[in-house]
Design a protein that fits this description.
The complex is a heterodimer of chains A (450) and B (483). By secondary structure, chain A is α+β, with helices and mostly antiparallel strands. In chain A, 19% of the residues lie in helices and 36% in strands. Chain A contains nine helices and 16 strands. Chain B is of the alpha+beta class. Chain B has two domains: 237 residues, 2-Layer Sandwich (PmbA/TldD fold); 232 residues, no CATH class. In chain B, 20% of the residues lie in helices and 37% in strands. Classes of the chains: A alpha+beta (450), B alpha+beta (483).
Chain lengths: 450, 483
């Protein structure tokens, strides 16, 4: 019996929850059971600092009662608690206002191909065999504390790291016969390194890797990479403000993609809180921008066969050659806005390469010549109704395609639609460990102040 | 609210003997300290949009976290069930920190002689958040009219309003703590929050305004005066928002308005005073204890003792009483914010800052209500002293790098200061600076200290409710990122 994923008894309990709710007067119901298990080893300066073992279970219900809707959750998996939990959920829902647009998705739109949870090949059998000793060895072997020498330039003052392996299991059913499941393992290692220079100034760098299959985890490259990122920031200089090319590191490039995807969500559109109003079917971005929801790639983390309503995921373009191809419309917003439903949100959006495949960060720096290479966003904000943004940034100045020096106390300001209209390049270097596949991005004529 | 001990033992279905047995099992492999943290939380949410309260729900979270310390090293596990077999399994998992397989063994058991003592029984008379109307026993139907009243009162105030979203969130948490020093603490923590977001439209442009109020209180907090306060705040200053422009950037003096600008104090200075960052050598203040860090007369406090405040605690999540802690006193760094681990490391008493999001997390040093004490200047004199600068009354989306101390804050609303007067409203700018430098550059402190009662939540690894505040303050030079 694999206790770390949902057991047959727990799945029975989930089904009993549905049946009991229906007997108690609920007209329709969706029940989602989640279970996750994680083991973690934390290290500080090459020594063990923390050992954690977690196991979580929860049951969430969305109930549709007399034209009303409520959502509830509990982690108490026992029959006695279930009875009072459902009674209270139903009575609470009956106190809310009617909302005729609340409904389960039409059965024809729901996933039929996620029966065992293993179809996407995201479960690694190795999870069963990782021992506490092996976790500890991996965590300690990855450390470089005391092995690196910064000479007179810097001293490594802190190396804080975590190795973890986990598995999570989702089982989703509804009163219309929907039944789907997703199981995924995850192996991760992340480290933050702080160095101190001869002036006593401190600089920190972070790097991580994560993968559903243990064999693919690049654990040994994390500490050197975090150190490299910390040291690279030493001795930053002020930089004059002005309009420059901006290259954004793939690690943080979602900062300029996520607001666009959020603005395409029907909830934002219905609330008049979107800078993408009335853009469906229109070419509002340059030819070079295409975003595809690559949600069904086997073996790649973040892939899903269904969303939280159980609606089947579809690999399709969100933006194609600059044209907006879809809004994200769930069942509720579909009724409310009288639009055809799609899916509640992009599952695994991928920004496609431009102007050619294969470009990496260094190629893009060369392509751009000079400008500011942004490696981190620090504070700031964006206005979801206008698309205006203003973010603090950290990064480097570059000239002739080569990094010259780190910059500090700079702010980038603009508007997302204007920014995207100045697109120069999209790399081909998105990290597979991220849920959004956003590569290095480059834009021209961006407003920096300092 | 503090109930009788029996209430907590019954809630978690445990006995004194079982608590002792779990501690013994946790320390079977050795270790210097062990504690149990039982939690039963009910969160309820109601949401009004498009004029109706048509979304609602609640969430129940129940379990026990078991921690074993081996010196400064932590073993942690939890169980969502309080049956003895599940809890013993969690105790054994946490004890791995003291097992040879998990690393070095060797820290001595913390004993009665060396440990600070918090043996007393929780005292209901000293309760910082008595709850008259328990959210858990109030029906949702009671609150629906309150949200509807907010909606209609706001809409009546301004014809430019196109959307109102109002949310009521409540949470009640029962906590029972027991540790290897024999200390037992129990507590019931209410938390109620009202949040309103309004979208205005004028001449084809939209602007939004968000306000919130949050207190450690029962449902009795939902008074008419709170309703009026929220409604007035939701519509105030919107003319200025529409008129606001992005000013020219550069280095200039910045006046931070009393109250909500205290978030800068929390982010840019408070985190750097948390002892875990200092113990690990990551904070820019890690070697500055006892040193002058700003002008004489400036004192910065982290306070868990304000009745009904969002950051108030009777006990922290390690059973240490909530306290009033000076971090900076008269310009000198006098204390970090400690949990039991860092207090042991530095050889001081814990300051009651060991907090956690839930039983799923082990406690770490966290702020409570962080603020600067008042000075002797009037707000008017401070503004009048600036020839050209920025006045900020609200920040959002601040971020700080603990090691470097560098921070960036987005200015939600503010004004240009020209020749000692507030002139043009400003928006869409960032204030950039360095925490220790900004602290050292504070030149004037107002006599109007104000604690802001918004729904501040600190997100350092885990989310915990906090609050913040500041009097009007003049910082002589910060980078303003504008046109």
């Amino acid at each position: 019996m694999k206790e770390y994923i949902l057991t047959p008894e727990e799945m029975d309990f989930t089904r009993r929850c549905r049946e009991l709710a229906l007997r108690k007067g609920v007209q329709k119901i969706r029940v989602t059971a989640n279970k996750s298990t994680m083991d973690l080893i934390g290290t500080l300066n090459g020594e063990i600092d923390k050992v954690t073992h977690c196991m979580d279970r929860s049951i969430s219900i969305c109930v549709f009662v007399d034209g009303r809707y409520g959502s509830f959750a509990t982690n108490r998996f026992d029959e006695e608690e279930l009875d009072s939990f459902l009674d209270k959920a139903i009575s609470t829902t009956r106190m809310l206002a009617e909302d005729g647009f609340r409904d389960l998705p039409d059965p024809s739109r729901t996933a039929k191909d996620a029966k065992t949870g293993l179809e996407l090949e995201l479960f690694d059998d190795r999870y069963d065999t990782v021992t506490p000793q092996e976790r500890l060895r991996m965590a300690l072997d990855a450390s470089i504390f005391g092995k690196e020498d910064g000479g007179d330039r810097w001293t490594l003052v802190s190396e804080e790291a975590e190795y973890s392996d986990s598995v999570f299991d989702t089982y989703l059913i509804d009163s219309q016969g929907l039944e789907c499941r997703h199981i995924e393992t995850s192996f991760e290692y992340g480290v933050e390194i702080t160095v101190e220079d001869s002036e006593g100034d401190k600089y920190s760098g972070y790097w991580w890797d994560g993968t559903p299959l243990l064999k693919d985890l690049s654990i040994m490259e994390c500490c050197p990479k975090a150190l490299e990122r910390a040291v690279a920031q030493m001795a930053p200089k002020g930089h004059r403000g002005g309009r420059f090319n901006m290259v954004i590191d793939s690690e943080v490039a979602s900062k300029v993609v996520s607001p666009v995807l959020k603005a395409l969500n029907a909830y934002s559109l219905q609330q008049n809180n979107s800078f993408m109003m009335d853009t469906l079917g229109k070419k509002v971005f340059p030819e070079g921008l295409s975003i595809i929801d690559c949600c069904r790639n086997k073996g790649e983390t973040g892939s899903r066969y269904f969303d939280s309503e159980g609606v089947v995921s579809v690999q399709r373009p969100v933006i194609q050659n600059g044209e907006v191809m879809m809004y994200f419309v769930n069942t509720y917003m579909s009724g409310k806005m009288a639009m055809a439903p799609t899916i509640e949100e992009p599952i695994r959006p991928k920004v496609m390469p431009y102007p050619q495949a294969g470009l990496k960060k260094d190629d893009i720096l060369k392509l751009c010549g000079s400008g500011i290479y942004v490696t981190e966003f620090n504070g700031g904000n964006s206005n979801s109704s206008t698309g205006d943004f203003s973010y603090g940034i950290e990064g480097f100045a570059f000239k002739n395609g080569k990094i010259t020096h780190p910059v500090r106390e700079m702010v980038v300001t603009g508007n997302f639609l204007t920014l995207w209209s100045h697109l120069l390049a999209c790399g081909d270097d998105a990290r597979l460990c991220m849920s959004k596949l956003i590569p290095t991005l480059a834009f021209s004529d961006v407003d920096f102040s300092s | 609210m503090i109930n009788e001990k029996k209430y907590y033992l019954d809630t978690f279905r445990v006995t004194d003997g079982q608590l002792e047995e779990l501690i013994a099992e946790s320390l079977r492999n050795g270790g210097s300290f062990a504690d149990l943290y039982f939690e039963n939380t009910t969160c309820t949410d109601l949401l009004l949009k498009d004029g109706e309260v048509n979304v609602g729900g609640f969430n129940v979270d129940f379990g026990v976290g078991i921690r074993v310390l081996n010196g400064e090293k932590t073993g942690y596990a939890y169980s969502e069930s309080t049956d003895m077999a599940s809890m013993l399994a969690a105790a054994r998992a946490a004890s791995a920190i003291s097992d040879g397989s998990a690393g070095k063994v060797g820290a001595d058991r913390e004993d009665e002689a060396s440990a600070p003592k918090y043996r007393g029984k929780p005292n209901p008379a000293a309760d910082r958040y008595p709850m008259k109307d328990d959210w858990r026993t109030c029906e949702a139907a009671l609150f629906v009219p309150y949200l509807a009243k907010i909606d209609s009162a706001i809409r009546q105030k301004d014809s430019r309003i196109i959307k109102v979203i109002a949310a009521l969130s409540s949470q009640v948490t029962d906590v029972l703590m027991f540790n290897s020093l024999g200390e037992m603490k129990y507590d019931t923590r209410p938390l109620g929050s009202i949040s309103v977001s309004v979208i205005f439209s004028q001449d084809g442009k939209t602007e939004n305004k968000s306000v919130s109020r949050s207190f450690r209180s029962g449902a009795e907090m939902l008074t008419d005066s709170l309703l009026d306060e929220v409604v007035n705040l939701a519509v105030s200053g919107i003319d200025e928002r529409f008129a606001a422009k992005r000013p020219k950037g550069g280095q200039m003096p910045v006046v931070m308005g009393a109250g909500a600008s205290g978030i800068l104090l929390h982010e840019a200075m408070g985190h750097a005073f948390e002892a875990d960052f200092n113990r690990k050598g990551q904070s820019i203040f890690s070697d500055r204890m006892g040193q002058k860090v700003c002008r004489s007369g400036i004192s910065i406090v982290d306070d868990g003792t304000i009745r009904g405040n969002r950051g108030a605690i009777n006990f922290d999540d390690e059973g240490v009483p909530g306290q009033y802690t000076y971090m900076v006193e008269d310009g000198v760094l006098t204390s970090y914010l400690h949990d039991r681990i860092s207090a042991g490391y530095y050889g001081v008493k814990p300051t009651g800052n060991g907090r956690r999001e839930s039983f799923r997390y082990h406690p770490i040093p966290r702020m409570r209500a962080t603020y600067m004490e008042g000075g002797d200047c009037s707000k008017e004199d401070i503004i009048a002293s600036v020839d050209k600068g920025i006045y900020v009354d609200q920040f959002s989306n601040g971020q700080v790098k603990i090691g470097e101390g560098d921070f960036t804050f987005y200015v939600k609303s503010g004004y240009l200061i020209e020749k000692g007067r507030l002139t043009m409203p400003v928006k869409d700018i960032n204030i950039i600076g360095n925490g220790p430098q900004a602290l050292a550059d504070i030149e004037m402190v107002g006599n109007d200290p104000t604690i802001d009662d918004c729904t501040w939540t600190c997100g350092k690894e885990q989310s915990v409710p906090v609050s913040c505040g500041i009097p009007t303050v003049l910082v002589k030079s910060l980078t303003v990122g504008g046109e």
